[in-house]
Each structure stands twice: as C-alpha cells, then as structure tokens.
Structure prediction request, 415 residues.
Amino acid sequence: MKITKSLVATMALLAMGATANATETIYITGSTAFRAATLNAVKSLLNNANPTAQSNAAFTSSTAVNWMGVTYNGHTINVKISLYGSVGGVQTVSESIAWPFLIDSATSAQAQGEAFVAGSTTMTYYHDFQVPTIAMSDTLQSSTPFNTTALNDGVVGVVPFQWVASYGASTSLNNVPTGLSMNNHLVNAIFSGGSAPLAQITGNSGDAAKSLFAIGRDADSGTRLIAMAEAGYGATSTVAQFKPVTDTTAVLSHDYYPGATINGIAYDPGNTGYNSGGTLAGMMRYETLTHLAGYYVTYLSKGDATAAVQSGSTGTGNAVGLAWNGVNYYTGNTGAAGAAVFNTAAITSGQYTFWSYEHVLYPNQGSTTQAFVFAPALVTAIKGTTSITGTASASGLNYFTMSVVRSGDGSYVTY
Prediction:
C-alpha cells in the first residue's frame, strides 16, 4: 500500500500526541550503601506514596522498588529503583546501558519471590531493561573507567566502611577490638596475591603458618573501589579474591572466584567476587581455620559490617571488626542487646579515614522533563541543608556533621 503525505503527517501527529501523553518514568540504579536514605528520600518527594512493588518485606531493605502512577510536581510519573552496585550504576548511566528493573505490573510478592540475577534476560519480573536516569554512587565518576558522558554530581552524605576478619580471628570478650589493625601494606599484600601470613597482623611468630585470605566484591562494587583507593592499591586494580565452599557452619575449601562478564566487560578468575555485600557479610561468619589454616579478610559498608559482627543466623558466630591504620571505627558489641557500636566522631574529626562521599549522578535532562526537577530535588532530600535534616543519616553520616573534607576517593583527609 502506498502511504500518502497526508497519512504520514497524520501518523506523525498521533505519535507526537502519544509521546506528549506518555507517563514519564524515572529510573534509579547504583549503590546499595545509601539504600535506606535513597528510598526514604524518594518516598518523601512522592508525597509519601506507598510503592506498588518492593523486593523486600522491609521497605528500606529493598533493592528494587516501583512507584507507578504517582503525583510529582503536578504531574503523574513512575519511579523505578534497581540498586546493585555503584560502579555498575555509573557505567549504565554514563555509557547508556540498559539495566533490569521490575516490570510495570510487578507486585511485591512477585518481586520478593524471584531472585535477581544481574544481566540475566530470563527473569520474569526483573525484565524491564532501561537506561537509568540517575545513579547513586559511593565513588566519584572519575574514579571509574566510565566517563563517556560527564554526569552532574550532587554530594549527599558520607559512607563509612569497615575492615572485617572472619569468625575466630579474635577471641576478645564481647567482640571488643583487641588491636588487630589493617594497613596499606597488608591490603596490598593480601589482595594482590590472594593471601598473606596471619603473623603480619597479629605480630605473633606462631601465626606465620596461618594465612589471611582475600575475599570481596565484584567490579561493580563501589565498596571495593573505595577500599582499594583508600589503601593506595589502585581503585580499579586487579585483585585476587577467593570463593568459599561451605557446609552449614564452616568453609571446607576455596578457589579463586570464577571469572565473569559484567555489563559487557570480562573479568578473570579472582578479579571477581560477590555481587551483594549482605551475602559477603554472612560468609564472614563461617569457621575457616580447620580446613584453610587461616581467616578471610574483607571490606564492608557499615550496614553489612554490622550484620557480620552481630549475632546472626548464618555460619558459626560473629566476625571480627578490625581497626584501620590503628584507629577503630567499630568499637564492639557493647550496645543494647549486644548491638554493634561505631565511633562516629572518629570519622567526623578526621582520625578514621576509611570513608567516601555518596553521590547522586545524572546527565543533563531536558528542561521539559520531570527528571530535570526530580534529580536535583533528590540531592536536597537526601543531603538536607544546614537547618533542615535530610535522609542521609538513615544510611551514613550527614554531610554537615563533618569537620574534615577530601578531594577524591582515597585522597588525604584535611580540615
């Protein structure tokens, strides 16, 4: 059939009308470190509307959330969140790579009933592949290899991190730190070759035959990038990390973590790791000395570290919080009912330096879009102001409580 000019014009007008009337969707991905703060901030911007689907029964523990047909700025919009890693989030936004979000019709039961597999195209409910609008990141964009599109950067808070050794590395009463401390040399030695003698952290010659083994996150993780930058090893340097084989309470054996392709980039065995800080935290609670003659050491966000060092259902018992360059952030399970306690003042005063800024990263938005208004509003909702408290403290530290600053990931902390 021959298409006339008038028919083409009519089709174009119909298409324009459909576009104009389409409900705009804002897609948010990236870091889980500020998950609770991000979710609370988005909900507040949406007039406290309840989501139509969330991936965890506890709202602030959800990594995927949908709000469909909600009101914002006098318009009806959708907001979809799918958080699985800082570096990967930067990559998807800067390089315009589609990432899986929950489908529009998903319910909470469906979201919670299907395990998310990053990059899988066979998932039933995590199957809306879209280029994200906003990336949450605990790293600077410039610290990652992904800088095709320069993104706007709103700093919204401070993310604390903690070094942790696996169960049994210390027998201290009530799990109070006993002086075991990680430092730049140890991180470089352990994560470049996969292990180092335990004696290097304990100072005991009798521990020379025992080892500290590297275990950690995959290359999508901002926590990994910050840990390696802070130690001077190199933010994106190759690491050698293990994957344990376990029974219900103990690690029976291990080998280098299998190689993987993440967002189109191939990583060799050992240079990969867990895609979840929560899963890694649980692994630190397993007994390792019997079969490995040593212990694991890793880097965790404060929230994941808390799960590792407090009483939990996985493994044998509590992991061990380590100092960083002689300064403790974790001070023991001395809170109510054995809760982990952290020394916030050690960070805000500049003594403890294993932390980064949390960023809201987004490209320039068309001025007629709701994303143009929403992205900077999200920055303010999380960060707050000098007189209005934002949501940052739900996940990390309020930006305005800091007495010190740093110019980059792993850079010197100054007043």
User: Anything to note?
Assistant: The mean pLDDT is 92. The chain has two domains: 5-157+356-414, 160-348. Residues 367 and 376 are 12 Å apart (CA to CA). The radius of gyration is 23 Å.
